[in-house]
Description:
By secondary structure, the protein is of the alpha+beta class. The protein has helices spanning 8-11, 38-41, 53-59, 66-76, 156-165, 167-193, 196-213, 228-235, 239-251, 267-274, and strands at 80-82, 87-89, 97-103, 106-111, 117-123, 128-129, 142-145, 149-155, 217-218, 221-223, 255-258, 261-264. The longest helix has 27 residues, at 167-193.
Amino acid sequence: MLPKITDRRSxxxxxxxxxxALAGASADLDPLALSTGSDEATRRxxxxxxxxxxxxxxxxxxxxxxxxxxELERLAATGRRFPAQTPLLHQSDVPENAILVLDGFACRxxxxxxxxxxxxxxxxPGDLFELDLDYRLPLDCALxxxxxCRLAVLPRPDYEDLLRRRPRIARALQMMRLTEAxxxxxxxxxxxxxxxxxxxxxxxxxxxxxxxxxGLASDNQYSFPITQADLADTLGMSCVHINRVLQKLxxxxxxxxxxxxxxxxxxxxLKTLAEYDASYLEPAAIPLRPxxxxxxxx
Length: 298
């Protein structure tokens, strides 16, 4: 669980420039917690070695040119490692960098004045924390790592230049934003209208499909670097309630937690419990208009 932030200086590592990651953050000891190493948390499924997760994800939205892929490979090569439980951006900061998750898991979250936390989104490999290019508005949430992460940090001028020169990448990011908005609507429905078992079942189905997109899930199983405290702060339940729901899903033969991996034993049963419809994760079909700068790469 991320520590409560009381010092803006310690919470704003990536507001204006890459900085040394905070040291000494302790991992929350939890029966579901993974090692904080990102290799286990983001191990590739067979057949998905090679291309970075960001390229894989964008390629599901649009047909990228060879030049686009080279740009993304160069960006991925700049990744730097950050420890687990590191606050990166504070609520009300005005960020000056886009942040790409290459390995590990990060999250957006909000703190109440009483110290309670609500996780509002997970960033898995291939996800991008984008910049507000038009208004430079203060953030309405914070950003931090859950596991050790490898992040690529793209300063505002470079980010703007990339979108200007590579319209297909810009269009793919637009489609990703639509999917992120759809995920948020599903999460609101989860919190407001689903029971505890239904909430967790829906979340586990969603994570399976999101990780499968970038080759991080196969055979209905994936690494699960999420503690019971994280799940509680995501699904609006107590840790005790989360534990009971996990035990129920196990007893019903729907899931198995073995070491550091989650296996969905009965995918159809879990989908039925959650009334899961994966269509919200499919990017909308947005026609790509011809653009002068969208020239095929040599």
